[in-house]
Amino acid sequence: MQHYSGFGLLKHAMSHHENWQRVWRNPTPKKSYDVVIVGGGGHGLATAYYLAKEFGITNVAVIEKGYLGGGNTARNTTIVRSNYLWDESAFLYEHAMKLWEGLSQDLNYNVMFSQRGVLNLGHTLQDMRDISRRVNANRLNGIDGEMLDAQQVKEIVPDMDCSANRRYPVMGASWQPRGGVARHDAVAWGFARGADALGVDLIQQCAVEGFEIEDGTVTGVKTTQYGTIKAGKVGCVVAGNSGVLADMAGLRLPLESHPLQALVSEPIKPILDTVVMSNHVHGYVSQSDKGDLVIGAGIDGYNGYGQRGSYPTIEHTVSAILELFPIFSRVRMNRQWGGIVDTTPDACPLISKTEIENLYFNCGWGTGGFKATPGSGHVFAASLAKGEMHELAKPFSIDRFNTGALIDEHGAAGVAH
Amino acid sequence: MFLIYCPYCEEERAEEEFHASGEAHIVRPTDPESLSDEAWGDYVFFRKNPRGNHHELWQHTTGCRKFFYMTRDTATYEIKEIYKVGEQPKVATAPAVPNKYDQFSSEQAVKK
C-alpha cells in the first residue's frame, strides 16, 4: 500500500499527480474464503479491515452488489456521538467513538473526523428532565456530556433563535464536545484501502442471491457473477436489505425497512460550526466543509426499499429547522435523497449469531449506524474471528426479542439520530 | 407521495391524512396463556419485511379514522389494491418467511 503523507503529495506534484497507485485492487474471487462479508458499506468494510488487522484473518472477501460505500454510508448526515442513555448502547457507541479518535492515523487516510460538538436541544420541561437523566448516565459511564441552559446554547450557536417567545422555545441542551462529523465516503474508502492492503478481496458489482446451507450450517454464498463462493463463516452487513437476505436464509428478523431522507442546501458561508439536533421539533442540521447545510429528516412511516421517501416528511423537517433557524428561510435546497434503514422495535442494532451455524448478522442500526462504523466493525470482526460474540455485542443478540431484555433507546436517541 | 383511496370515504386523499400501521393480518394469539416466549416474541416484534408486494394496515387518521388494508409494492411503491377490514386480499405478497406460530398468514388468505 502506498503510504500517504505530505511529502508524498509534494513528490507526486512533480509528476502532475499522474502516478498515484490505485487505491484498491479489483480481484476475481477465489473459490473459498475463511470469512465472507456480505455488504461493502462502512460497517462491512470496517469488519473486513479489523478481521485482517486485529485478528489476523486475511482470507476474507467482501461481496457488494453495487459499489463500495454506495448505500447508507453515502446517504447519512455523518453525525458521530456516543451520548446514549443505556449502558449497553453507551459502551458500544463509546467504543466506536474511541476508535474514531484515532481512525485517520490508523488508516493513514484522512476521514476528516471533526469533533465540533453535538447539541441535543430540549424544548419542554420533560425534555430537560430527560436530558438531565441522560447526561448524568453518560457521565457515570465515562462519556463526556454537559447540561446547558438557553443562554449557554446561544453562546455556542449565536445564529439560532433561542428567544423565549418561540412556539417551541430552546430551554437548554445536552452538549457532547467530543461528538462531531466525519467525511462519510472517506470512511468507506479508508477502510476499503486498509482491508485491501491486508489481502482482503473486495468484490463489487456482484450480488448475493442465496446461501449454501448444509445441516443447519452455512457453507457458502450463491452470487450472481461468480457462482457459489465457499465460506467458513458468513457475516451479513447489508442494512436495509437485511430482511431480503434473511428471507434467503429462511430466517425471520425483528426488522422493518423504511426510507430515511436527508437533504443539503446550496453552499453558504460558514454559519454553523457544530451539530444541532432536536428530538422535539425533529430535525438535525450541521454545515459541511463545502458550506452546504446538511439536514436530516425522519423515517417515512411505511416500509420501503425505493431509496426515496415522501414529500411531507421533508416539509416537516424543514419547518423544524426553520423553527430553530429563521435565518435559513431564504436558503435554497440543492439535493434530496433517501436511504433504506432497517429499524428494530427498540432502536438498537442486532449484532448476533443466528439459528444457522456460522451465519452472523450485523444489522438493525436503523437511523443511526454511521456513528458506530468503526466500533460495529471491530466488535463484529472479533465475534466472527472467535466464533463467540464480543462482550459489547452480547446484549444486542436477536434473542432479546424473545427474552424481553430490550435496550430501549427510543427515549434517549429516539427519532433524531 | 401517495394518493390513497380511502374505501370508507370513497375518495382519493393525500398521504398526509393517513398513518401506516405496519404489517396486516397479524392475528392475536388465541390461547395466550400457553404461548412460549418465542411465539410471543414473534407475535410482538418479528415482522415480514419483503421487497415487493406487502399487505399493510393503514388508518385514515385525519379523515374517518377507520382502518383498512393495502397491498403495496415496497420497491416501486405502487399501490396494488385497497380493501376493507373483513375483506380478503387478491394480490399475493412477495415471498417472506412466515411466522411459524401464526395460525392465519396472509398467504393463506390469498389462497382462500
TrEMBL record, chain A:
Keyword field contains Chloroplast: no
Presence of the UniProt keyword Transmembrane helix in the record: no
Enzyme class label: oxidoreductase
Catalytic activity: sarcosine + (6S)-5,6,7,8-tetrahydrofolate + O2 = (6R)-5,10-methylene-5,6,7,8-tetrahydrofolate + glycine + H2O2; sarcosine + O2 + H2O = formaldehyde + glycine + H2O2
Compartments where found: Cytoplasm
Keywords of this entry: Cytoplasm, FAD, Flavoprotein, FMN, Nucleotide-binding, Oxidoreductase
Domain called Rhodanese: residue spans: 35-79
EC number: 1.5.3.24
Similarity comment: family membership: Belongs to the SoxB family.
Protein name: Sarcosine oxidase subunit beta
Organism this protein belongs to: Cocleimonas flava
From TrEMBL, chain B:
GO molecular function: sarcosine oxidase activity
Pfam families cross-referenced by the UniProt entry: SoxD
GO biological process: tetrahydrofolate metabolic process
NCBIfam families listed in its UniProt record: soxD
Protein name per UniProt: Sarcosine oxidase subunit delta
Organism of origin: Cocleimonas flava
